[in-house]
Amino acid sequence: MDAIGNMSGSYSSTVGLFVFVITIFGLVWFLKRSKNLPPGPMSPLTILTLGEESFIKLTQFSKDYGPIYCLRQGTSLFVVLNDITVIKAALVEQAEVFSNRLTSPGIDIINDGTKGSILFGKGENWKEMRRFGSQAMRTFGIGKRSIGKKISEETIPLISEFLAQEGKAFNPNDVINNAVSNIICSISFGERYEYDNVEFQFLLSCLQKLSTSTSGLTMVNLPSLLAKFLVHIPPFKKRVDLFKSIQKFVSTKVKEHSATLDPNDIRDIIDMYLLEADKQSTSDKSFHYDINRTWRFVQDLFAAGSDTTSNSLMWAIAILCHYPEVQEKVFEEIKRVVGVDRLPTYEDKGNLPYTEAVILEIQRFRPVVPLVGRESIRDTNLSGYFIPKGTVILMNIWATGHDPLKWDDPYDFVPERFLSPDGGRVSHNDSHIPFGIGRRVCLGESLAKMEIFIFFSSLVQRFRFKVPEGHPLPSLEGKHGIVFCIDPYLVCTEPRI
């Protein structure tokens, strides 16, 4: 007990020191602050009080300070963009200024640096990784019928797993996560994994724990020495350990590929990267490719291509339980257009406007990435305000999807808002940006759209989802970590055919 008490006291002292340092830096920054900054709360500790629902509180601040406002954390300036107009002004009209992804000494430590990273990379290195990533995705069928066929093939074992539950209560998270991850695994690693593969289940568990851990705004732009200290104490050390576990798995796959590489038989993106790195080794692009960091690029693709889509589908099933009338309308449309003798394909989407509208509304209602961070690379002006170099830019996607000026009853679930008056076609809203906007729009957007549509429509065609008798409906509150995840829930599936 004494040891526990000492640990608790030590942790409290550390937190107290951290708050003190941030406060001092904040006072220094306040005295030196630039003129004509966006309005906002004056306290340098505001970000520390945001909690897990940071995107909701940031949306609430916009009611007092407008669509663009600033927050302070120590010496750092955060500017929050809360409507589509200011977001486009920044990420589209000034794309070069705001194209850097948000990083910091703390984030760099957790992610083992940014070189070769398609998620956290900057400057010319990121541009080259983005170019290569786009080429690699096209090479392996993204946006083509071939990848749609692969997704449809994965739907069959997914449905079998649901049938195996025999109507009993279960958490669908693991089987959905496995099905979605198998798509990006087949592209990245050249193989898929059975749903009972222990090693792969451990990997997916690490990825999910990392995604649901703290979003890390408090780690942004901390001094390097303080960041190096914090990553050795909870909860930050846990994130580093999870990251290392994923890195170990991917690095092992890279070593296996290096040992069996055949330039005449490119199996997957790992092979493609290794060959590109070798090709560029004698060119001026050699700086961008490092065979020893192949894992960094592949790990980003795997992580981004797994957890976000899985979470979208988990939100989808939970929402269908809340709105059974919506579930039935989706099924009736699929039955009328596709029938029940075959599974829906991506080519059916144009003839299933209500099904697509439900998916769009799910993404608006509960976006899995409600906050996206950027960083200004130089001084600039935005919407009449001065934005200094190094400012953290937070794109509040939750706010754009719940803006009462753009959406009627934004906190209600209404798929019809994405339909034409006659219900015959999908009607889009420019404030709907679940995959981001600008130069760093999600690289896997087309893949994610195909996965969500095929998996979602196939599951609704085959099953009626409901909560087990005596259980509450799934909570729609969620938890915001790296992504916005739904809390675990149980569901029963009733076969329709």
UniProtKB/TrEMBL annotation:
One of its GO terms (cellular component) is cytoplasm. Signal peptide: none annotated. Gene3D superfamilies: Cytochrome P450. Heme binds at C442. Its cofactor is heme. The chain crosses the membrane at residues 12-31. GO terms for molecular function: heme binding; iron ion binding; oxidoreductase activity, acting on paired donors, with incorporation or reduction of molecular oxygen, reduced flavin or flavoprotein as one donor, and incorporation of one atom of oxygen; steroid hydroxylase activity. InterPro entries: Cyt_P450 (IPR001128), Cyt_P450_CS (IPR017972), Cyt_P450_E_grp-I (IPR002401), Cyt_P450_sf (IPR036396), Cytochrome_P450_fam2 (IPR050182). GO terms for biological process: organic acid metabolic process; xenobiotic metabolic process. Keywords: Heme, Iron, Membrane, Metal-binding, Monooxygenase, Oxidoreductase, Transmembrane, Transmembrane helix. Belongs to the cytochrome P450 family. This is Cytochrome P450 2U1. It comes from Holothuria leucospilota (Black long sea cucumber). The lineage of its organism: Eukaryota, Metazoa, Echinodermata, Eleutherozoa, Echinozoa.
